[in-house]
Amino acid sequence: MLKFIIRRVLLMIPILFGVSLITFIIVRFIPGDPVMVLLGADRRSTPEQIENIRRAYGLDQSYVVQYFKWLQHVLTGDLGKSLRTGRPLTQELGLRLPVTAQLTIFAAILGTIPAVIAGTAAAIKRNSPLDYATTVTSLIGISLPNFFLATLLVLLFSFKLKWLPNVGWRSFFDDPVLNLKLMILPSLSLALPLMAILMRFTRSAVLETLNQDYVRTARAKGLKPSKVVRKHVLPNAGIPVLTVVGIQVASLLGGAVIVEQIFALPGVGRYIYEAIQNRDYPVVQSVTLVLATIFVTVSLIVDILYAFLDPRLRHS
Amino acid sequence: MSATPAGLAAAQTKVRKQRTWWQVLIKQRLALAGLIIITFFLLMALIGPHFAPYTPTEMDPANSRQAPSAAHWFGTDEFGRDIFTRLLYGARISFQVGVISVGIAATIGILLGMVAGYFGGWLDSIISLLMDVLFAFPTILLAIALMTALGDGITNVMIAIGLVNAPAFMRVVRGSVLSVRNTTYVESAVSVGASSSTILSRHVFPNVTAPLIVHSSLNFATAVLAEASLAYLSLGNKPPSPSWGSMVSTGYTILQIAPWAALFPGLAIGLTVLGFNLLGDGLRDALDPRLRNQG
Prior knowledge:
Chain A has 316 residues and is an all-alpha fold. Helix content of chain A is 78%, strand content 0%. The model of chain A has no long low-confidence stretch (mean pLDDT 87).
């Protein structure tokens, strides 16, 4: 078990190294000079001024030097500064990560709970109308793009019913009620596809467990059906469901670009998207690396948890 | 050695298997519904534009934001363009991107996945690491970054989506190869001195096709969604291109006055993706005997 954990932790190093390298390469391939983007409309700058800026940000050095300097800084906890605003990225992330985190947590709660309940019920009452309804709902959920879901939600709740605002963000600490109102639609746009995936997965995980010998044994010895489900089915089906929840939620952190864009939320996804548009090299590189680190860490935790919860793996 | 009997046996199983999985597929109403939806949109993409009542980019300011009517079945957008016509042309974009990007992803995935799964060792370690690295990226961000680096144009959309989806194919192929690598028939092929390329193409690849077909159908759905998402962000197929994603995005700005401008293209995306998901699910149940008797 310990050996497994150590191996998985060590594997993170080459993965993150690979992520940093690929991000760095893609970013340098983006056409357009970051300094010119930085100067914007002010094209009157003299060549010396441009050269000075380039030197100040280390953009005059070779790519190899730039890469290793960046890596060295990141490893010491210095993510660098935005080319555009000059603000340190750690500070910028401190403002934006909480927005995305709130969005992700809301979406995870709104998506997971109904999914697990409906998925389990569908598997137990297989081929019932409830089962078909669950299957159809989840198929629709995985087929609609989140921006279209957002469109439908805004049309219904903002324009027709006028219950909820359709754009903007307010800090929870400034105005908790408005913050929650503004977060409902974006969270739902992310929660519905998540719910669809988890519903399918829970259903098939529970179905598979129901076919196991130990469930038949439990039934044969006269255990009440509800107790069979609670004691034997759910704990076993729950483990794979948990891993899928972990991976899906972790991928929401960076995958909320479009939803953050539609609802004008100052989150991380939108931040990187704008940075790519502005050729803001340090932002794209460092924030992508941060997101990848979060993702890899979550999948590591999920893997360890899986091994820990499953006695067969725990002892092997 | 005994190429003929082996080939004959393979052919026989193939025929028998094919009949069964088709039967299962037809039995499944959902999969059939998927096939019908796909056929409908494919026809729309192939011949639809010839019957289009208007041109996709022709602006008609006098008739902007018209509600659906006999003249404009699905209404008109902000610039008076006929939404029905644009949907027909948009179907073409979705299918082109779907076919080519799935082709790119499958080709890369098959090559790397077979090599990694069959040869193992350091080759497998390196390919698997590359796969893990690509999985660590948020998919949509990787696609956005690739699109920005490659520049606009439908070809680059296909390349970007193909590259982003390749690791998933690699995983499917590698897994299937691993499951047959130690079987006796591969072992016997090795022992009679068959070359690696023969074993891979004659004995290993046929075992990969079933999961590959299933994954291709599901991945087509992913690719259509990815194209729509990129177009929604004005990457690749920029306005005035009649890409469905781009239509939802421009329609969103007039959602309150003319909701049809965003609703119809959004439904088109949803239905097409649903079709491929239904077909993929049905194929999986039909091709995977273990799941055949489950719901």
